[in-house]
């Protein structure tokens, strides 16, 4: 009785251990477990599909060889004899010759081994016909001469072989094309994510650059105790509202972008009112056109920073914006101090470097940027295809 209880406890222990192992396998290694099931299922499907294909071939051979024949045994001999030859030659081509030589562009060896393989398969088909003919003679059974003809057997054999090879290679090409398309799609997705990340970084760099310049202007006005300081604070609040709450989208309204540009220009007018000649021309209507946010602001920033603040006398800034259908033409020209060599700093500042990168990322092959420098002027001409 004690032995029976111990045996029962041992069985229960083994059952609980097996159950715990299965739970552990499924709970802690679910990916491996599921992957094994999927791999087993795919292999099973592949084996069954191959068996089904060769079953069709056997039926095809038998129906072909049994026409006008009095002996079913002869048809079975021909079908059963050619079947292993067809299977062997097909798999030898698909899994040895083609991947080892043809895919690797070893054409000479591929054609040489293919010739010998077809030569052997032809000899085997002749041999099978010979045995089938002997059997038919001994059994005194009538066979259609066209069926028992060796050349016909060779053609029938290699028709099936080449058909199977073609199916395999077409299937391979199809899956390779699918894999290539998926890789290209993944690459495009990765590049798009990288572009989006870079754009966010560039946009984030625009904000502190702009704020630094504006706060510097506000600081100058407060030092001078200017009555225009409250107006500048109001303009700055509107610009900050635009930057913080309306520039998260990839594209914004062109009208809003130009309105933000006008607010910034008003701030600079207050800052340099005693030494600046400013001419601006903006379109009254912008329609439904959209533009990347803060794409024009760096050009205006640099014009005032390098063309006005560094100019000893009366400086000028000319800004002109035109719209031709869906094309934006933005021109800005400013004075430059000829006594100070600021070309490198002017063209390679943080703002201009960032805007060049953003144009390349957002408007590839849809913009033209031309920068002209002389001893006394600096001009930018941007032509941009909008949406």
TrEMBL record:
Q: Which residues form the Signal transduction histidine kinase internal region domain?
A: 197-275
The family database entries (InterPro entries) matched by this protein are listed as: Bact_2-comp_sensor_kinase (IPR050640), HATPase_C_sf (IPR036890), Sig_transdc_His_kin_internal (IPR010559)
Q: Does the keyword Transmembrane apply?
A: yes
- UniProt GO MF annotations: phosphorelay sensor kinase activity
Keyword field? Membrane, Transmembrane, Transmembrane helix
**What Gene Ontology cellular component terms go with this record?**
membrane
Q: Locate the transmembrane regions by residue number.
A: 20-40, 47-64, 76-98, 110-137, 152-170
Q: State what protein this is by name.
A: Signal transduction histidine kinase internal region domain-containing protein
Q: Which organism is it from?
A: Tangfeifania diversioriginum
């Amino acid at each position: 009785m004690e032995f029976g209880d111990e045996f029962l406890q041992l069985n229960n222990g083994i059952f609980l251990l097996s159950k715990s192992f299965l739970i552990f396998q499924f709970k802690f290694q679910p990916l491996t477990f599921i992957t094994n099931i999927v791999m087993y299922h795919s292999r099973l499907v592949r084996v069954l599909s191959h068996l089904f294909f060769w079953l069709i071939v056997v039926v095809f051979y038998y129906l072909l060889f049994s026409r006008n024949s009095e002996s079913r045994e002869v048809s079975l001999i021909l079908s059963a004899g050619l079947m292993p030859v067809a299977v062997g030659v097909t798999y030898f081509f698909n899994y040895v010759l083609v991947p080892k030589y043809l895919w690797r562009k070893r054409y000479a060896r591929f054609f040489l081994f293919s010739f010998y393989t077809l030569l052997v398969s032809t000899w085997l088909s002749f041999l099978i016909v010979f045995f089938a003919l002997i059997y038919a003679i001994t059994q005194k059974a009538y066979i259609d001469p066209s069926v028992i003809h060796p050349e016909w057997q060779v053609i029938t054999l290699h028709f099936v072989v080449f058909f199977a090879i073609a199916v395999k290679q077409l299937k391979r090409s199809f899956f390779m094309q699918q894999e290539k398309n998926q890789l290209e799609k993944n690459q495009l997705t990765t590049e798009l994510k990288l572009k989006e990340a870079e754009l966010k970084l560039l946009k984030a760099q625009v904000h502190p650059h702009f704020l630094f310049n504006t706060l510097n202007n506000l600081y100058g006005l407060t030092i001078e105790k200017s009555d225009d300081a409250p107006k500048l604070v109001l303009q700055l609040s509107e610009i900050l509202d635009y930057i913080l709450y309306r520039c998260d989208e990839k594209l914004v309204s062109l009208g809003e972008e130009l309105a933000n540009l006008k607010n910034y220009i008003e701030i600079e007018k207050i800052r340099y009112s005693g030494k600046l000649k400013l001419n601006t021309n903006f379109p009254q209507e912008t329609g439904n056109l959209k533009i990347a946010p803060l794409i024009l602001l760096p050009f205006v920033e640099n014009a005032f920073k390098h063309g006005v603040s560094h100019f000893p006398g009366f400086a000028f800034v000319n800004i002109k914006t035109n719209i031709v259908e869906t094309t934006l033409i933005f021109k800005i020209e400013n004075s430059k101090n000829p006594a100070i060599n600021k070309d490198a700093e002017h063209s390679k500042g943080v703002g201009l470097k960032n805007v060049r990168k953003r144009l390349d990322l957002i408007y590839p092959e849809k913009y033209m940027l031309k920068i002209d420098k002389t001893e006394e002027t600096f001009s930018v001409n941007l032509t941009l295809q909008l949406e």
